[in-house]
């Protein structure tokens, strides 16, 4: 595929309904919800090679509302941690910021 034909393919894709829906989704980021007293809070920890993330959500029925989000880019030394060490780092970072 040449650069010109790739540009044409992208142009055709950009006019499609799927692309328009995707643009709407990206343009409306999720808003943090206020936590409601008496409802359980859930903490999800996510670790990758270069970052750790934590998300606090609150369940209302089958819907989970985003309450708080934490993200940290790992320093060079931290990228060499074992996965369990990254998990503990994510947990400690979450506890400190909450």
From TrEMBL:
Highest taxon listed in the record's lineage: Eukaryota
Pfam families in UniProt: RT_RNaseH_2
InterPro entries (alphabetical): DNA/RNA_pol_sf, RT_RNaseH_2
Domain Reverse transcriptase/retrotransposon-derived protein RNase H-like: 17-96
Record's protein name: Reverse transcriptase/retrotransposon-derived protein RNase H-like domain-containing protein
Originating species: Mucuna pruriens (Velvet bean)
């Amino acid at each position: 595929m040449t650069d010109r034909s790739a540009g044409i393919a992208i142009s055709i894709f950009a006019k499609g309904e799927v692309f328009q829906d995707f643009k709407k989704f990206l343009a409306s980021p999720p808003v943090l919800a206020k936590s409601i007293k008496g409802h359980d809070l859930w903490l999800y920890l996510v670790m990758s090679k270069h970052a750790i993330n934590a998300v606090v959500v609150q369940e209302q029925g089958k819907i989970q509302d985003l309450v708080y989000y934490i993200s940290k880019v790992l320093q060079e030394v931290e990228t060499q941690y074992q996965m369990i060490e990254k998990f503990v780092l994510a947990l400690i970072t979450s506890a400190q910021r909450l």
